[in-house]
Amino acid sequence: MRIVLLTSSSTRSGGSLQAYYLARELTDRGHEVRFAVPRDSSLPEIDPGLHWLLLPRERKHWRAEIEKIMAPPTVLHAFHNKACKLAAWWGLRLRRKGNVVLLNRGVCYRPGNPLPYWSPGVDAYTVNSQACGRVLRRLGTPRSKLHVVRSGVPASRAEPHRSPADVRAELGLEPGQTVVGSVAGDKPVKGVDVLVRAVASLEDFSGRCLIIGANPDKWRPLAEELGRPERFVFVSRTPQVADYLQVMHLFVLPSRSESMPNTLVEAVMAGLPVVATRVGGVPELVDGNGLLVPPDDPAAMSRAIGESLANEVGRRAWAKRSLELAENYTLAAKADRVERLYGSLLLKRGLAYQSTL
Predict the structure, then answer these.
(1) What is the pLDDT of residues 290-349, one digit of tens each?
(2) Of 19, 104, 131, 240, which has the fewest CB atoms closer than 10 Å, so is most exposed?
């Protein structure tokens, strides 16, 4: 198949990485894939061998560049808000020429502009969780056009590059010391403040809370204000998240809003028991492998963490269940689903293509 993936995001956000993972996997499967990104995107640095298209700085010129590489029949799959708006606008023209157009939505809040999700120029909408799909359905998006395509993470993301002993030594952990961990950014929606308050209020906690990706200069003052700075270890953003997941006894997702976060998927793939907030699509991934708590509630999170740490037998059962759930979130499983969807849309339109299945 000829496939063009389009993103309007220049950052390595969770949605951008999902688009990149898909582009790489489909390329490796023998499809003719182009990944169109803004000229200032940092994504091409990850994988120079992928077939990138650097788009003009002005978006008004994007359509012309995209049409140059869309020899029919081609599948165009747009990711992120601005790209989806543009693809929905271009859709009727592209479809008349014998192409297929899809939009991806990976957040659970109601879109400010619903028009792209009503567009007759769009063949299908992919969402990464049932919760996200429900939002679009309530908006009036046709049910027949909605397809849940779960996030997929490459197996390499779950493979540590260092031994647990080396990581524990780096972090200054004592032998056998319990580690509660999280991977989060500094934006308020990620809830680092909730996690810090929850762990600071734990009784009889002699372990450490390891937070990956949060700025220590921003969060250490809060830990000091709460009188528990010694409980926290901060590590800057790193591509080697699996190195740190392997030393965690419990993974915590404190977000105030999510759809299907990559960080939680990676923790589940690492076989970790979890405590997470009941937001968006998170309950679809916390299914017999941990506890759910209300968002923005440090007291409830603290209780859940305490109960989890006190229940070693339960944590072992949750860890086993995480590994079972992880099979649904492999990159291979996602690519299988996407291949079938692209193929069915092409056939539905009567467009011939060469299948690699």
Answers:
(1) 999 999 999 999 999 999 999 999 999 999 999 999 999 999 999 999 999 999 999 999
(2) 240
